[in-house]
Queue: 2 jobs
Job 1
Amino acid sequence: MLLGFDVGNTNIVMGVFDENRLLHSWRYATDRDKTSDEYGLLVKEMLDWSGISIKAVDSAIISSVVPPVNHALFSMCIKYLRIQPIIISPGIKTGLNIKYDNPKELGADRIVDAVAAYEIYGGPVIIVDFGTATNFSVVTENAEYLGGAIAPGVGISADALFLRTAKLPKIELERPENVIARNTVTGMQSGIIYGYVGLVDYIIRRMKGELNKDAFVVATGGLARLISDESEEVNEVDSLLTMEGLRIIFEKNKDLIK
């Protein structure tokens, strides 16, 4: 079985595959201070809860945008799983031609999403990942990763309103029925949610214009459904896109660890 880790700034998503089938996935808070032992016990507990023996895991792959967590997870795989994991890093086989000015600057999560989106939906494809940041990525029909855009995440924007103003409260991220709100809380929700819908649709339209052709648009990430349900440009919400990308990249690179 393959164990995949997608380490984001806010959450770590872990999934276990039996060949091509995702059996289970879990989401827990990213903790930069956790040790390899703590992660090992957490992994074992989650696998046990799902009826999977830790001994059944024979391979692992890690995508991370939080460097302090990398070493702990790598050491955990060595100590508890008795395997050497594949780390998504420059030089890994992806099947994409990276056109970024400096590929080393490109986040592993963006590459993983792009690989999965191109494999599943073909190209040209635009990927919108709603995480701590909102990442946009573009892949052409010839498997060229062109780049994209990075915007503050929905949660960051909501927190900024609360932290940087004296009288605005902390709010739940829920979509209000109307844009014209009659109280402060729904007014903030309206501005954030519908404002982000406008941001997403405008950037996607500009990207399509620069491509000079239409493109399939797939959204992923924890808040994808919240925004995409109102979007005129998003074609598909795929909550498992990153996990599938990890599996695909593992298949392309598994010979490197034998």
Job 2
Amino acid sequence: MASERKVVFLGTGDFAVPALEALVQDGYPVRAVYTQPDRPAGRGRMSRLSPVKQAAERLGLSVRQPETLRGAEAIGVLRVLEPDVLVLAAYGLLLPRGFLAVPPWGGLNIHPSLLPRHRGPSPITWALLEGDEETGVTIFRMDAGMDTGPILAQRSTGVRPGETAGALTERLAQIGAELVREVLPRWLAREMEPVPQREAAASYSRLL
């Protein structure tokens, strides 16, 4: 039976789409989907919808595209939605402490690396650039830092010879969707205890 706990989802890129679809398939009430504002792209500078916005519209979900999540107005809007938990994947903005404090179960981030390795905005590309033989997905409880929150679960996978960033993103997106399906009900049932990251092992990916 699906949980009645209300979810607000935050995501922008392709990596986030399977996780959003999984939450809907599992029957979670997704009160809203936050995604980055439409940006001009291509030679014609036409406005381009993010992959998550396209998925949300296809799924009939409410979409919000604020320029920032900082300030009383953004927090007030979130409070009206009354989420029990936030789920984030490839969103592109840090969530302020006040925003994270609204839902009683906080915010979970689906991150495509084995944290604390490759924190930051480009973990998949940097795993390939640095010749990692193994990578994976981490789900952690968000804090105000850059991918620094305590870990709830990880799943690893080998990097295949000659694998491109696009192919690896697609594989990790499916792993992330599977993992959030397992983690979220246990987190909402208070059956999981986050484990702090090992700061001494942390590394950061830079935006490319």
